[in-house]
Every structure is written in structure tokens, then in C-alpha cells.
Amino acid sequence: FLRATMERGKRQEDGGLGSVLDLLLANARLVLGVSGAAVLAIATLAVKRLIDRATTPRDESDPKAEQKTLEESWQDLALIKATPKPPKKQRREDLSEPLLSPAQPPAPGEAQDPSVCSAPPETPQVEPSPPRCLTLQEKLLSHYSSRLVVPEAQASLALQLARTICTQLQNSLRSKCPELPFGSLFLSGPLLDGLGALKADHLHLMLPVVLDTTLWSLIPGEDTVVRNPRYWMIKRTDLEYFPRGCSPWDRFIVSRYLSSNVLNETLHKMLVASVNWPAIGSLLGSVIYPVVASTELKLEVKHHQLELNITLFPVVEMKDKVLLAAPLEGLVENLWLESFYRAEVSKVKELDGGDAGARLHCLRILNGVCKSHPTLRKLSGSPLTHVVLHLSATSLDWAEESLADRFQQVLEELVGHLEMGVLPSYFNHKINLFSELLEEEIDEMGFMLYRAITEPELLLKEE
């Protein structure tokens, strides 16, 4: 009787648990959906098995019963883990939408559950307006203001360092070479004159060589051994009446000509060995040293705020010619290069002053573009200035509003000159400013500029 009563109680408990599970499973589909109901059913089955095994007395006489029970437990656990997880949904309390799908609105007249809040209207997304396309004029002015304006403090420091070095070098020359009538050193270059400085990192130091015009004469470039109208020779005259030694510069004569090479070699030795650069550098809070392995006369100045290169040029001025001791590379000696830099700066500023033009702006942009582009680097400086001067004779509108038109026109002119391989000097049409360019260099420059005529922005890309 007692055993029968216990079995009947167990059946009632099982029936009660089964009723609860059946009710839960019946409503699972409504609340959780098909996938959720399937997951709950499998989990419930596993739990029910675990409860049955826990309440069923084990047969101690069967040694394999315990092992069988463990295997069934791992199978149930694997069954739960292997069940595919339903799509992740937000909890009901986090949702503001009603239980009904938007596709099934409540019937007319049916009251809506006040406990369910309706979803707020979505905030319309405002698409960002497309970036405004800048005109070439705006791009040029932006390029000029962002990349070509040297900070005033930087420029001032560079000039201050260069002027002090200029004074110290002048004193050294007078003490080491008192017999040579050098003129007063002076500074030059784009940083001072505004034609194309990108930053305050380079200046020219001009050293005048004062000649007695009764003892020296100029030989035109066409009559020199190189037949190049830009390179001149300076000849010693009247040696019969004024023998060697009458001029302090006679020590630099080679075959009756004043040799730019010999003069440069003498100055190079003095810069390297005779000037106390460490003392001058300490005075300026800098490190100064001459570049030994250079054919040019160069000084490098390292200050904690900037690095500055200074190039020294001996210069002769005779008969309105400005000649630099910058000989042609090769075996030819004694040549002096005619420089038009001073005339270029003067003419451009004169034209801009006459019509309030933007030639200087245009030149600085062009020089900046060419110096920062490896293919176009050899076009910077004089070639660009001479193209602008040629155009000024035919294109009279150089106002700032026409900067983009003039910029493109300069590119077109350059392409035309590169096609012919000839760019005549504005001051002497016998001189071809492209004479020292290689054919491969001309082809590469021409191709690049030809593309830039239709796409000028190619030249304004940040490097």
C-alpha cells in the first residue's frame, strides 16, 4: 500500500510538471517564434531527462548503470550546445515598437494597448552636401598661400645669419688677401627678391671682382671656343706695355685669360683652411662648415631653427654685363657665365608696378611647382622668368583675376618651346636657355607639361 501510494504521488508530480512544460511549450511559439520555440523544446527535453534520472533510483547491482547515466548527460549537454542559436533580438523592454508587425496594423476600432509605446518617427538623415569644386584660380591662390609664403620669422633669421657670415667673410678676405681688390660682399637670391623662394634655406653671396678696364676686355661668347653666346672670356690686354704683375689679378691668368677655375680653386682653399668657421658659428649659435667635395663655393649653416645653404659667386661687372665665375662643366676653363638675374628681377617688378600685375605671384607658383617636381626641376629660375617676360609683350592683362589664364598660357608656351628645343633669352635672342638640356630631359618635360595643359591640377598636388 505504501509503495502504491508513493508511485501514485510520483505520477501526480510528473503529471503536474508535464502540464507546466506543455503549457510553456504551447505558448513558446507565440512569444519566441518558431526558432525560439524549437530551442526551448530541446532544452526542456534535456532538463526533463535530467530530472527523471535524478528521481529514479539507480540499480546498484548493474555496474554499467552509472557509466550509462554519464553518457546520457553528456549527450543532453551536447544536444543543447549543438542547437542553432536564434537570431539575436533585443529584449522586449528595450523595444519601443508594438508587438504587432508593421505589416499587420490593428483592426479599425480595436483599442491599442496603452502599455505599448509606439515607435517614434525616424529622424531623416541629412546627406552631406558634395564638396564645392574649386576653380583653377582658387587652387592657385590656395597653393600660393599654403606653400609659397615663407614665414617672416624664418626669413628674418636666415637673413640675419647670412649677413653676419657675409661680414665675417669680408674681414677674412681683407686679412688673408689684402692685395686683391674685392668689392663689398652682398646677398642675393629668391628669398630677397621674391621670385621663387619656397623656404628660407638658400641664399647667394656675391663677391665682386674689381677689374681695371684699361687692362682687361671682354670676348663675346660666340667668339669663344665653345661658341656659346652665354659664356664669355675676360682677356688681359696690352701685355707689351703693361706686363704681368701690373694687375693684382694677373696671378689668375691662364693663356692671357682670367681663369674662373683658378680663382674658384683659390677661394675654395681659403674657405676650407683659412677661415675660423667654428668661432663664427659659436658667435651665431650655429655650426658652419664649407662643402669640401663641391665644385661650387658652398657653406652649410645648421641652426636649431633652420638649415641654410650659402653659395659664394665671384662676379665681374663690365660694360653692362654681369659675369659669374660659374664655368661650364667639362674640360673647358676660363669661361664666365653671363647672368641675367638682376635684369630679370628688375624687369618683372617694373612691369608689375606699371599695371598692378601678378607676374611675381605667377612666377613663384611656377617655380614652386617645378622645384618640387623631379622632372621639371631644371625649368625653374631663368627659363620661367623669360617665358613670362616674352608673354608680357603680347598678353597685357596680368591682373590677379587673370592668374589662372596666364598660368595655363605659360604652360602652353613652355610646351611649344620644348617641342622646338629652343627658348631664346628675353635680353639676348642669340642665347638658347635650353641649350644645356638633354634630349631625354626635354621629352620628359614636354610630356608632363602637355598633360598639365588640360589638367593643371597635376602640378598642384602635394608632394
UniProtKB/TrEMBL annotation:
Residues 78-131 are annotated as: Disordered. Residues 360-445 form the Mab-21-like HhH/H2TH-like domain. It is found in: Mitochondrion outer membrane. Keywords: Membrane, Mitochondrion, Mitochondrion outer membrane, Transmembrane, Transmembrane helix. It is a single-pass membrane protein. It comes from the Eukaryota. GO terms for cellular component: mitochondrial outer membrane. Residues 156-344 form the Mitochondrial dynamics protein MID51-like C-terminal domain. It holds the Pfam family Mab-21_C. InterPro entries: Mab-21_HhH/H2TH-like, MAB21L/cGLR, MID49/MID51, MID51-like_C. One of its GO terms (biological process) is positive regulation of mitochondrial fission. Its main location: mitochondrion. Residues 121-131 have a biased composition (Pro residues). This is MID49 protein. It comes from Centropus unirufus. The gene is Mief2.
